[in-house]
Amino acid sequence: MTLSLVKPSPEPDEVRVQLGGVGTRLELLHGVLRAGEIARRTAVRNDPTGTAGRRAYEAHVRTIRELHIEEERWARLVHGRLELVCNPDRSVAMGVMAGNAATGQASLFPKNVRRRGAATEMVTRANAGDATLPVQTALFVAGAGPEGVALSEEEAFALKTWFLLSCRTKIGDTVRIDCELSQPKGFRDGFVIEWGKRIPLPALVMDGIKPTNDDGPEEIDIAVDFR
């Protein structure tokens, strides 16, 4: 499998400062997307339908955790059934989300391409400071796992959750992944309807595409049961 980074995108100073405020870096976030693309390309024609998309999602979740745990001393967090990683003082968390074609475009409004569940609504309401938020502390404790953290009710209410949105476009033998790190603030019927803070990121461009995935001539992603 041939795979390489065509051209590293420049990181504007403004982006570096904004990401630093969240506690992350562009190289880590691009590393997440690169790992997902590599995983996607391991799918072969006779894998079950949707294998490529599922592997990309799993790699995104695993890598955003591994890189931030190793580089920034963050910790695994399962928020209900929402797969996250959170910073050492448990005030900021990050997850992954597939976005539409507006992803990464500051002048446009991106949307999640797949319907999300109650856990995403819960973190969105916490982002918005919703005083009526019913905090389900038991969910955090139950999902913490041996190497994860469990949030107190106060921590869960104060938690600010960001998502690494990405939108993959294949053009010939090149893949362009537009991306941004954004904080949902409004949610309705499974979709984000308002964003709080957004940090559009330089796109990641990779080449070396070989038609080995199982998605057929019109590529599709599996409908993972996101929370």
Topology:
Blueprint (H helix, E strand, L loop, with lengths): L3 E2 L7 H10 L3 H15 L10 H22 L2 E5 L2 E5 L5 E7 L19 H10 L9 H7 L9 H6 L1 E12 L2 E15 L2 E17 L20
Parallel strand pairs: 4-5
Antiparallel strand pairs: 1-7, 2-3, 3-4, 5-6, 6-7
Helix pairs in contact: 2-3
Please tally the helical runs, counting DSSP H or I stretches of 4 or more residues: 6
Report, as a whole number of angstroms, the end-to-end distance. Answer: 33 Å
| Alpha carbon gyration radius | 17 Å
Largest sheet: 7 strands, mixed
In short:
The protein has 227 residues and is α+β, with helices and mostly antiparallel strands. It has helices at 13-22, 26-40, 51-72, 118-127, 137-143, 153-158; strands at 4-5, 75-79, 82-86, 92-98, 160-171, 174-188, 191-207.
Give an overview in words.
- With 227 residues, the protein is α+β, with helices and mostly antiparallel strands.
- Helix content is 31%, strand content 28%.
- It has helices spanning 13-22, 26-40, 51-72, 118-127, 137-143, 153-158; strands at 4-5, 75-79, 82-86, 92-98, 160-171, 174-188, 191-207.
- Strands 1-7-6-5-4-3-2 form a 7-stranded mixed beta sheet, with helices on both faces.
- Strand 2 (75-79) and strand 3 form a beta hairpin.
- It is globular.
- Mean pLDDT is 85; it is low at 137-143 and 213-223.
